[in-house]
Amino acid sequence: MKKSIVMAAVAGLLASTAMAQAEDVKVGALMDVTGPLASFIPPLMNAANFAIKHVNDGGGLLTGKAVLVVGDSQAASQPAVDAANKLVNVENVPIIMGALASGSTIAAATAVTIPAGVVQISPTATSPSMTDMKDGDHLFRLVPSDNYQGEVLTKIVLAEGIKKVAITYVNNDYGVGIATTFNEAFKKAGGEVTAFEKHEDKKNSYRSEIATLSKGKPEALVVIAYASGSGSKIVKQAIEGGFFSRFIGTDGLRDDQLIKEVGADALKDSFFSAPTSPDKNDASAKLHEMFNAEYKEGADKPFVDQTYDATFLAALAVEKAGSTDRTKMSQALRDVASAPGEVIGPGEWAKAKELIKAGKDINYEGAGGSYEFDANGDVTGYIGKFVVDGETYKQIAIFQ
Fold first, then answer.
1. Longest dimension (CA), the chain
2. Domains recognised in the chain with CATH numbers
3. Residue-wise pLDDT tens digits, 45-90
4. What is the layout of strands, in order, in the sheet containing 139-141?
5. Paired residues of 98 in beta bridges
6. Which DSSP letter does residue 61 get?
7. Source organism's superkingdom (predicted)?
8. For 75, which of 35, 92, 148, 279 could close a Cys bridge (C-beta 3.0–4.6 Å)?
9. E strand or H helix at 366
């Protein structure tokens, strides 16, 4: 009897140990599920989940399964802080992918993740102010700063023969950052800015502002805003009032929502800039093929590549660290993202896991390109020029 009790106890201990060893590993995600970026979210959520699926199909994370824990940062400061606080202090995630909007990324980092020593990897935040944040090497992004996009947009606008524009921008970190850079670069290159006006995001009418912007006979209106927020309203009301017929936008406006609201014909002379992937990138082509096979559509939507890559990199950092120890994540992330090392592409989790286990260096080359982080957690990157093509957008040029 005593022997059987002892054997049962040993069996129970072994079972509980095995369960502990196979414990799920959480990967945090700050996604602006609701708010002005909501129309972007479905394919981006699929991208994040697809990366986690590849991790689990390729052997799992550490000795268990990877689980994506999502907080809704709502593209706003306080919701981002609340969501980050839950991920860090309740869910105890070791690393976070996101947020998406610059404002929510900065707010979450400043109030929660930097003080807690948790690495954040944004796939989309572009505000120049992120570069000089004192983040203790805990804030990274996979897209170039708007300082670069503003300069590229200047080249695109002047190449179109447009020399006089009015600029309206949403009053947040994203809008202020890129508008300021573009305004300065455009004037320095010889262009004329007839108006440079900020606007608030949640108004029903922008007609009086648009009328003011139209003075001075600008050739186009530059709208730096989210299509699902103020962007579509401004473009639509500008057309309805006969004030503007040509528009220039950045990534926030390059959203199918704009085409649905305004119509493709009304946008035939307009164009847009946005971070993109390098031309003829085998990793991007591979991911898009797998993505569309899994979800039937959406691989060409904005920031799908970067969101997948950021999630995959977050998991690779945990695997490289060999634990969920937060203090090891920033160095581990740099190790897996940078040369030298054997190249790992999207979906190649089993290969990466085996190489890490063998003590070998890896270098993730993503669908969005290479991610050689500088001292500020920034990367160089690519900016695409897009035009409306039916119900979506077509990329017609890439700048580096």
1. 96
2. 25-145+280-337 (3.40.50.2300), 146-278+382-399 (3.40.50.2300)
3. 999 999 999 999 999 999 999 999 999 999 999 999 999 999 999 9
4. 66-72, 25-31, 95-98, 119-122, 139-141
5. 30
6. B
7. Bacteria
8. 35
9. strand 362-366
